[in-house]
Design brief:
Elements: E1 11-18, H1 21-31, H2 47-59, E2 71-80, E3 89-102, E4 105-115, E5 121-131, H3 141-152, H4 157-174, E6 188-190, E7 194-198, H5 203-211, H6 216-219, H7 221-226, H8 236-248, E8 256-263, E9 272-280, E10 283-290, E11 295-304
Antiparallel strand pairs: 1-3, 2-5, 2-8, 3-4, 4-5, 6-7, 7-9, 8-11, 9-10, 10-11
Length: 308
């Protein structure tokens, strides 16, 4: 069934979360962020950690009956009011802000507002999800056939060669020797103008543990193939977190005021990503592409306070 607009405004029970040093470190490792810079203040996409249970409440809401096999994360925005620090107890409230259709797709927007133990606003999070082809429709016969053919197709030699070339470039730039059978690779390179990073095959699992997002499309290769993704995919929020590493270099952690992205395409294990953008005063606009030149993150925007 289609998502009923009568659920616009629906609220969910408050979620209380205390930020611990160990969880913060786990998240920094998973997203390859600066562990020294963020040892006391949470990085830009950490709201996913203290708000993920509310996200699950929406995705698995029996009133909404969302078709999770067709659902993808479309856009994400964070508006920061005050830094979140180790030891803070964060209370988050969530509501359904919008439900609408655009073309053949259904959209649902959740907004969550978080405050600290002093009652101070710390972050407003805007989560936009897209149900491809409509929530009330199953995959068509043609779509199912295409998915089946894609799952049977052998890897493209040209794409594989580009993948290995990009991996070799990141190894050379970062001075890192990559062992493909080892989790938590640190193969990334940041020169201030661009950020290159390798997505090893274990990163979806590592990020799932750090963020609390265990959606099956990120962890199960066979399920990912069944729903037309070609296998398991990296979390969009992990792609967003990696992008923050580019523009946070040289910036104080408490200076960011807003961070917004659009998820343009999926990211798979063994991909190499390049983030590149430019400053416009106190704003940074950027995009992220994979090793095939496909845009995976678009409309990236980070805004900072003028005096920090």
């Amino acid at each position: 069934m289609a998502i009923s607009e009568k659920f616009i405004g629906k609220k969910y029970p408050d979620l209380v979360y205390t930020v611990g040093k160990e969880k913060l470190l786990e998240f920094l490792i998973a997203t390859k962020a600066d562990q020294e810079k963020f040892k006391e203040i949470a990085p830009p996409t950490f709201p996913v950690v203290y708000g993920h249970e509310l996200l699950w409440s929406v995705l698995f809401d029996q009133d909404l009956k969302l078709n999770l096999a067709k659902l993808v994360h479309g856009e994400q925005e964070f508006i920061y009011h005050k830094p979140v620090r180790v030891g803070d107890t964060i209370t988050t409230k969530a509501r359904i802000e919008k439900i609408f259709q655009k073309g053949p797709h259904d959209f649902i927007v959740m907004v969550s507002d978080s405050t600290n133990q002093a009652g101070e606003d710390v972050c407003t999070s805007i989560w936009t999800f897209v149900i491809r082809g409509g929530n009330d429709k199953d995959f068509s016969f043609k779509e199912k056939l295409m998915v089946k053919l894609m799952s049977m197709a052998p890897p493209c030699p040209r794409a594989k060669a580009k993948q290995m070339k990009a991996l070799a470039e990141i190894q050379e730039l970062s001075g890192t020797d990559i062992a493909l059978d080892r989790a938590v690779q640190d193969a990334h390179y940041n020169n201030g103008d661009q950020y290159k990073v390798f997505i090893d095959k274990y990163m979806p699992q590592v990020y799932a543990g750090a963020s609390g997002d265990f959606n099956i499309i990120h962890l199960d290769v066979d399920f990912g193939r069944k729903v037309g993704l070609g296998g398991n995919i990296l979390h969009g929020m992990a792609t967003m977190a990696l992008g923050a590493n580019l523009f946070m270099a040289g910036k104080e952690p408490g200076s960011i005021k807003r961070y917004r992205v659009r998820f343009s395409d999926i990211v798979k294990p063994m991909d190499s990503l390049t983030y590149q953008g430019k400053w416009q005063g106190t704003s940074f606009e950027f995009k992220g592409k994979n090793h095939l030149g496909k845009e995976v993150l678009s409309s990236g925007l980070a805004e900072f306070s003028a005096y920090v």
